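Q: You know discrete backbone vocabularies at least as well as I do. I have my own habits and do not want them to colour yours. No explanation is needed for now; the record alone will do.
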Amino acid sequence: MKPVIICGGVGTKMWPASRQKNPKHFLPLIDGKSLFEISYEVLKKKFKPSEIYVSTNVGQAEMAQKLAPEIPKDNYILEPEMKNHGPATGLVAAFLMKKGLADEPFMLVQPDDLREPGEKFLEMMEECDRIARGTDKYITGGLKPDFAVMGVDYLIKGERVNESEEIAVNKVDKFLWRGIKETAEGAVLNANYLAARIESKYPMPYGRGMHECVADGSRFKEFGVKTLDIAKRLLEFGFHAPTVYFPLIVHEALMIEPTETATKDELDRFADTMLQIADEAEKSPELLTGAPRNTPVSRFDEAAAARSPNVRWRKQ
């Protein structure tokens, strides 16, 4: 199996720390090392640098070469333009085929993830290599979510296909994509249900919309409460706060986009919490303006964080 570190992106997911010319996987986030370097170091435990490939664009290739100078320049697969995962996979396959490796399985290793312990990841690669050589199936990996995440696709796990006690490989029973009709209908239904539950306290200036609803929190300003305070208070109830202050055409905007996989119980719990927070804003605004209190870190100085970001994690 040939490992291919695949990295691209335009530096928006960790903005302002990341930029197009310095995306997140090259930032020294963990003990002074980037996720690219950590992924490379894990792969070096099993593969020689000459056996490791990198798929990226011209600009990021220069950054990768500085961090991993042992990888031969001939092992870089340069994307002619930015596309999604499918075309990138095809380009890698064509590149390796041209090198005479048409029958050699390859694995795309995305450096966005921290894989610990690294030895378990290498064991997984070995198991995938064994299975890939005996089938014409595409093997993919995923995470079991602890909560519904918006804007991603889902794989429904099916029948087990291997016998390893340590690493389970299953067939994909179903692929849930937002473009599928019933999935899209579920997203629209959930968003409109949630809007109907909370619009008595959170007006929707542009109606209920489709797969998302945009609420206006301006009415709470007379109590000294801003949309940001509502978002911070949500954290204390265990909810990931929705997008705030966007779109710009809505003052004090709250853009809520429930995933199509969210259950009615989850939506009701979120709606009940939003209604409770609305009552608190009117009667006890200090509960919002002082939130969050039960998180590892309370409020940041967001202006200072934007000007002087420090996103490096260190072990205590």
